């Protein structure tokens, strides 16, 4: 998805952190994937123009700090999330 726009692609630590927060112990892979995709945004907070995805292991570290400086990074994440959601919907 990001072969032509690598500098704005979502970093894996953000995806991993949000997925871990959204996971609810589902035993089915499809249920887990569907649930995680539906709840990814719950780990993203916003204060004014600043996006926050807090490092769960080190309070105060914001994995999304560059999103405020470069809104194209936030847009790329939300575009990726929409594509992922559409793809998961096809599996259901």
Key phrases:
92 residues; mainly alpha; two-stranded antiparallel ribbon; 4 helices; 7% strand
Give a structural overview:
The protein is built from four helices and two strands. Strand 1 and strand 2 (50-52) form a beta hairpin. With 92 residues, it is mainly alpha-helical. Helix content is 52%, strand content 7%.
Question: Would you spell out the secondary-structure blueprint of this structure?
Answer:
Elements: H1 12-22, H2 29-39, E1 45-47, E2 50-52, H3 65-69, H4 71-91
Antiparallel strand pairs: 1-2
In total, the number of strands is 2
**Beta-sheet strand percentage?**
5-15%
Quaternary arrangement of the chains shown?
single chain
Write the element-wise H/E pattern from the N-terminal end onward.
HHEEHH
| Content-based structural category | mainly alpha
Distance between the termini: 22 Å
Q: What does the overall shape look like?
A: globular
